[in-house]
Amino acid sequence: MKRTGYWTAITLTWVLVCAGFAWAAEAPIKVGVILPRTGEQAKFGEIEINSFQMALEEINKAGGVNGRQIDLLIEDDTGKPEVGRSACEKLIAQDKVIALSGGYSSSVTFAICAVAQQRKVPFLVTTGSADKITEQKWDQVFRIAPPVSEYPKGLMSFLQDVVKPKTVAILYENTLFGQSGSKEFAQNCQEAGVKVLIKEGYEAGAVDFKPILVKIKAAQPDFVYMISYVMDASLLMRQSKELDFNPKLFVGGAAGFTLPEFAANAGEASEYVFSADLWGPKVPYPGAQAYYDKYKEKFGMPPDYHGAEAHACMYVVADALKRAKELTPQAVREALVTTDMMTLFGPVKFIAYGKKTQQNELPTYLVQWQKGILETVWPAKVASKPYVYPVPPWSARK
Amino acid sequence: MSQYYGRLLLLVVLVAFPWLIGDPYYQHLIILFLLWVAIGSGWNLISGYTGQILFGAGAFFGLGAYTAALLMHKLEISAWWGLALGPVLSGLLAFPFGWICFRLRGPYFALATLALNEIMRYIATIWESLTEGMVGILLMQTFVSKLPYYYIALAIATGCIVTMELLMRSRLGYYFVSIREDQEAAESMGISSVYYKMVSLTIAAIMMGLAGALYTNYMGFIDPRVVFALFDISIMAVLVVLVGGVATIYGPVVGAFIMVALWELFRSGGFGSLASLSKATGWPFMLTVTKYVSEAHILSFGILVVLVIRYLPNGVMGDPAKLRKVFLFWKRQAT
Amino acid sequence: MEVFLQTLVAGILKGGLYGLIGMGMTLIMGVMGIINLSHGQLMMVSMYITFVLFQYLGLDPYIALFISVPCLFVLGVIIQKYLLNPVMRVEAILPHNQLLMTVGVAMVLTEVIRFIFASNYYSVRTSYSASAWIVGGISFSVALCVAFVIACLLTVWFFWLLLKTDLGRSIRAVAQDGEAAQLLGINTERIRFITFGLGASLVAAAGTLLLPIYYLFPDIGGRFTTKAFIITILGGMGSTVGAIFGGLTLGLAEAFGSTYIGMEFEDLIGLVIFVLVLVFLPRGLKGLTGV
Question: A130 and chain B: CB distance < 8 Å anywhere?
Fold first, then answer.
């Protein structure tokens, strides 16, 4: 029994020492970030965490907030809402952060919003795209990026001006992003006079999409709109090539279609695929190209819109911290309300429109994979390369 | 009376806890712990005591959760009524479950319940007009403070434990165990195995449904992947009781505590202590360690499960003698 | 018509691969009476091995087969010998500890792989990964066809093993009656190790064959475990012919269900068939034929 006491004493001492270290250290300004470090969404979490940290370094090097450094506390939500909730509770109650950011998956973002709203700590949503997130009149919640219903804005204008399609087939993964995104897009199509021939969901991870693809092929839609995560997107394109399926164009609804892994895994099948996108290195906002190049150099892979969102969030939070009358959550919230700044993701001003409150309104773009590089192709004034349309059929390509 | 001291003390501690520790983070963890006590007790009843290994706990939990959510979302009735209706519906679900699965033995029963759990998840995902599919259902929580949720969870967990105590002392408990030990012999003694298995499953379902209904009210957001989860609910239920001790009343309590504590310990890197340590010392090595530790929580579970089944098959409460031997083994090594 | 034929082809080709996955599990189930819930994870490990061989040594998956299969054989033997066998002998309250042990093994395998490779998606792109033969307007995926053929060859080889060799006879003996086999001088423990190893190798082959047209992620195992036990039950426990049968049935059901009902129902169909077969046809589809 003496030995057990011995071990207990050691453990207790260790715990106390750690706590002591934490308490004694110089207290910088604490901001919490909740993102998926592990789990299925870890890839996106990684891009966003890297971008947050890159921006943090830049800000701190430039003097931080009025001379004080910012400390970013990153918690893993593992892709699950109840874990996101635990993480949020911990950041607020234990770490006493004065602002929160992050939120990738919409369901996790909801859970975090609920806690932030209750505990009155401002939460700047980075990615969580469900429209409902900014439709609840939550005064603690701000969102920098467009909601999923607005993702196809750039696409729709391209379709109306250039393609003028009559029919579409919509294929989406059965997740919140897929189900709500496809519903919104179907509605957009109907309003634009485009007939939805097929609208089907699938469970992510399928091996063989040929049955549904051949059904879509037989229906001969003018274009196909897909909302998928990266690997399903790759398989969909590879199998469409195998089936020699040639609609006028293939369009992805962002997410998996804009990741570099898509081109890496789909290979030639990714060529000429379009996608909605929220950002690209050539957008006319200061710092966009520089960030793209710096990220690519540091991490080996180019970033996509998720990274840009995260980077911009860090700057918006820092800006609010600078303007806040005092460093308390409520003062930071009030500073966020009056945000009016330019970031590499676009101008940031939280306004109310439609059913939404505290939502930043931004245009979206259309991108196209050309020779393995994601080029912004529409609107023309921000295009990095001209679009390729009509798209050559599979057999005509080398 | 002295045998109750330990349990009463535990109850007192749990009741006093939120007053002693006002930190909502820890309160949240204890609420999760209490939910798992309820779910684990239900699993323990049907699987530990009655011997029918259930891999479908998520089906009952999920149904309870959705009942509460849909009451509010579709009928504009307060989701708290879900605490009454949820367990009822889950209990009713036990009938078709049982009808389909009880004719199967052992592993086939387990697989069938797993399949039914998954089927329910798919139905909830596809039937968007009823459940909103993967968009999920969002409810505003009634209370800002955690205390009401805490005490309701405590009441539910205590209720489950007390039910288990009473059940296992009664004739019903005896029948359950005899079915587990030797179904044919029990039948030949006039114990209808189908009837008693059904009773056992129904009570288990009620416990899980109750936990599900509270989950909806507390978390405010549910979707099919979260509440009908195969790994996070169904398999976790198995692990919780396995580690804590199958077929012991307090096994689920010990197991729930260990699992919740371990999970959060790993996820947060020692409740944030590793992160503080690495920041304070500034060693890059510590940062790597922190990263690896926080990503290792499921690995730790897996290893724990393998070790428990291999060396401690009846769990912590089930094999206290073996457990002592394991610790003594460590001590002997240290010497 | 094209839709129907394409669906049919898709179903059959996928079914061949499924059959291979099911064979491994049914073998283990037949001989040892345990359901191996880590089956899909074993497949996942073999896929990672194939990936590593491709990425770092440039080995084509079809050649990597000769390495991944023996590796998984060894892994299977180790799992059986050190983890499952000891549990079989222990008296515990719950008689199904082996089943739960396989769950634990599945978790450990998944997480160890995640530790080493992180949660990144990887894939192997060979010259034939996205190519297909177009015959009569119907697309035949090259990789799936080759996988189908190899699956058939492996099945034939496996039958030869079971029917014509001593080892095979011993396996069948232990499957029929373990105690009697022991009395006849067969080292049942060794046979059990070998059987688990063989089951693992079969699913390893399936994994290697699947890799060119699918992708890698630590969590893909669970999906295939579910398919495996659906196939096993469909085909009748312990019957290797049944597994092929079950695989084809599942492949076709999924393909036709996808096309004519809806793709979101694909996995649901398999599960519903599973439950129906368990309830109404406990001996699998073979029970229908009265064999």
Answer: yes
